[in-house]
Amino acid sequence: MKKQNYSYIGISFIILLFGIYSVPKIVKHFNAADLYKYTKVPDFEFINQHGETISNKDYEGKVYVVEFFFATCPTICPIMNARLVEVQNEFMGNPNFGIASFSITPEIDTPKQLKAYAKRNGINHKNWHMLTGKPEEVVYNLSNDGFKLFVGKGEVSHGGFEHSGLFALVDKDGYIRSRYDEQGNPIGYYRALEEHGFDNQIKELKEDIKLLLKE
């Protein structure tokens, strides 16, 4: 009987040692900046809400979030930008963070209109640029082909346009990045909205921005 007890004690001790050895490795895994790397973002050059020329070079060395929107959007854009204001506030004092909001209605969204929109919506991070000044075709190509975020014509009730409710996350070297889902697949982009039974991914977006800022 004593011999059997010693066996149990020995096995328990081995399990305990294995646990002590494994926990730091597990913790390290969950804190590593192990985000999937997509292709590099294309070159771009637009005008921001202050009338300044902004290009992809202005974002070099910064971690930034990309969205496509329009200021007169009656549906998802107000929600998307409210979410981005949350993200902005989280990184307000960080000069290595930014946001690029590309207007898909550049003929309507002039710098003056975008500046007023920014003021109304609490958009005030110095690296949050609301970008316009190029023909629709250029913006559509940038969105659909460059960032792989859908933009197209839509129903009048939706403002006449349709666009993705997703955010792209770009690292300091200009590559689109994302975390992996529970099945080990890269999620690609981050949901701004709660839809189809899924929560938004703003918490995850903030976490991954922090990881990339440490790179």
From TrEMBL:
PROSITE patterns attached to this UniProt entry: THIOREDOXIN_2
InterPro entries reported for this sequence: SCO1/SenC, Thioredoxin-like_sf, Thioredoxin_domain
Transmembrane domains' residue ranges: 6-23
A Pfam family annotated for this UniProt entry: SCO1-SenC
Keyword tags: Copper, Disulfide bond, Membrane, Metal-binding, Transmembrane, Transmembrane helix
Domain Thioredoxin: 35-207
Binding site for Cu cation: 73, 77, 163
Disulphides: 73-77
PANTHER family hit by this protein: ELECTRON TRANSPORT PROTIN SCO1/SENC FAMILY MEMBER (PTHR12151), LINALOOL DEHYDRATASE_ISOMERASE DOMAIN-CONTAINING PROTEIN (PTHR12151:SF25)
Family membership noted in the UniProt record: Belongs to the SCO1/2 family.
Protein name (Swiss-Prot/TrEMBL): SCO family protein
Source taxonomy: Bacteria, Pseudomonadati, Bacteroidota, Flavobacteriia, Flavobacteriales
